[in-house]
Write a structure and sequence with these properties.
Layout lengths: L2 H6 L4 H10 L9 H12 L2 H15 L3 H25 L6 H8 L2 H36 L22 H16 L1 H26 L16 E2 L5 E2 L1 H12 L7 H4 L8 H30 L10 H8 L3 H14 L1 H20 L18 H17 L2 H29 L12 H17 L3 H25 L1 H8 L1
Antiparallel strand pairs: 1-2
Helix pairs in contact: 3-9, 3-12, 3-15, 4-5, 4-10, 4-12, 5-10, 5-12, 5-17, 5-18, 6-7, 6-17, 7-8, 7-14, 7-15, 7-16, 7-17, 7-19, 8-15, 8-16, 9-12, 9-14, 9-15, 10-18, 13-14, 15-16, 17-18, 17-19
């Protein structure tokens, strides 16, 4: 077999659909509302309670609402493409599996390797943001951590390691190891609390808005304290590139396809519902937050709590911190679940050692990838600042979105005969639009983020050509023919 044939070998959609019916690696326990809760849990979190305020202060001013809108449009285009694939190929692996069906093994590996890092890093970012609100609560009770344990190096005087962020990732990994449906029920309850909390922020904050704080809506371009230029429309785009991290997460629910009771019907519904609910809340809260206080005051670790405290409602800030502490756990759940299942799918297909593709004999969970991902994210969350990690996440996810938007277009043209439980409306507009938005957001990321991403992908290519290209399930099949 030629090298080109090896790199482009793929699983047909029919084979993937048949494997879905035959496989019993996981227990089918998730309904449409639990799937939607996983999606909302993956989307609403640090973005709404941390990044919205921080990016208003650093890059976009009150126009951070437009940053969310820009990121949301690009994400919505990709979400519609995800929904079509999810209804057609309900297999664990999400974008990795979809790429395998359309573009071939090398492209699938690149997506899978990419998402393996991105999902794990999302857990780390969320844990870092979560830690800030936990410390607000502890401080209100008169409890103060030693300086070395409050954050990563460079995030404050005396900071060395973010102990709280590292600890919570290990707890979530342990919960997901025990039983998926227990985690799903826990997640659904938490998502409900989180949505109620977001609605309370809107309901109370809207009465504290001073329209003066929205002027200028797009602050003029000027050098900041760090010497770099900030604000202006370029700042709005830069903020959109960062907050994009907060506009995906619905893809995590597609990684649980083999644990859904009726995946062809429920996955597309859950993808669209979770994004629509989340984006509405994001944009409204951005307007409320920047209307409550001048945007320059929103750069702290817990901006929502800080905004209420600045208006003399410190007790509301403490209550918001409590909601965040409970609610953001659902984001950790969603992305830890997704990271472990991407890892499992890569190993099951032979692109990584099969040792990782063993489910727990009692709990029926991919416990090895889950526990290892938990340990890795604990180290990242403890050692790195939030902004650097968020930027690296976004370039990887945007790259995957470009591939998904292109793949659904290719498959619609190549295989129009396939049964599709959901069809992306106006695909010939939505797909190119999703690609263009993703490219624009990637362009707004710092050069150092590109460098780190290229290094990670180079490592992935070494792993693939050193192991996966010869050990994959399709490689073994081709040798027996």
């Amino acid at each position: 077999m030629s090298l080109f044939a090896q790199l482009t070998r793929h699983k047909s959609v029919e084979v993937l659909q048949a494997e879905t019916d035959e496989r019993r690696d996981f227990r089918r326990v998730l309904g449409v509302w639990q799937l939607t809760a996983i999606g909302i849990g993956g989307i609403i979190g640090v973005g709404i309670f941390v990044l919205a305020g921080q990016q208003a202060a650093a890059n976009a001013g009150p126009a951070v609402a437009l940053s969310f809108l820009i990121a949301g449009i690009g994400s919505a285009c990709a979400a519609l493409c995800y929904a079509e694939f999810a209804g057609m190929i309900p297999v664990t692996g999400s974008a990795y599996t979809y790429g395998y069906a359309v573009l071939g093994e090398l492209a699938a590996w690149i997506i899978g390797w990419d998402l393996l890092l991105e999902y794990a890093l999302v857990v780390a970012v969320v844990a870092i943001g979560w830690s800030g609100y936990v410390q607000v609560l502890l401080s209100s009770a008169g409890i103060h951590l030693p300086a070395w344990a409050q954050g990563a190096l460079g995030t404050g005087e005396g900071h060395v390691f973010n102990v709280i962020a590292a600890a919570v990732t290990l707890v979530v990994a342990g919960l997901l190891t025990v039983r998926t449906e227990w985690g799903a029920r826990f997640n659904t309850a938490i998502v409900t609390i989180k949505v109620i909390g977001a609605l309370l922020v809107i309901g109370i904050g809207v009465f504290l808005i001073d329209p003066v704080n929205w002027h200028p809506f797009v602050p003029p371009r000027a050098p900041g304290a760090d010497g770099a230029l900030h604000f202006g429309w370029a700042g709005v785009l830069t903020a959109a590139s960062v907050v994009f991290f907060a506009c995906f997460g619905y893809d995590t629910l597609t990684t649980a396809a083999e644990e859904a009771r009726n995946p062809q019907r429920d996955l597309p519904r859950a993808v669209i519902a979770s994004l629509a609910i989340s984006m509405t809340l994001y944009i409204v809260i951005s307007f409320v937050l920047t209307g409550m206080v001048p945007y320059a005051q929103l750069g702290g670790a817990a901006p929502v709590s800080d905004a209420f405290a600045a208006r003399g409602f410190g007790w509301i800030g403490v209550a918001v911190a409590a909601v965040v502490v409970v609610g953001v756990l659902s984001v950790l759940f969603a992305f830890m679940l997704a990271a472990a299942r991407i890892w499992f799918a890569l190993a099951r297909d032979g692109l990584l050692p099969g040792w990782f593709a063993k489910v727990h004999p009692r709990f029926g969970t991919p416990y090895r990838p889950t526990l290892i991902a938990g340990a890795f994210t604990a180290l990242v969350a403890g050692l790195l600042p939030i902004t650097q990690v968020a930027e690296l996440i976004n370039i990887g996810t945007l790259s995957a979105f470009i591939i998904i938007c292109a793949s659904v277009l290719v498959l619609r043209r190549r295989r129009p005969d396939l049964r599709r439980n959901f069809r992306t409306p106006a695909l010939w507009i939505v797909s190119p639009l999703g690609i263009l938005f993703s490219l624009a957001l990637i362009w707004g990321l710092p050069v150092i983020t590109w460098v780190r991403f290229v290094i990670w992908m180079a490592i992935g290519l070494v792993v693939y050509f050193g192991y996966g290209i010869r050990r994959s399930a399709l490689a073994k099949t081709s040798r027996t023919l």
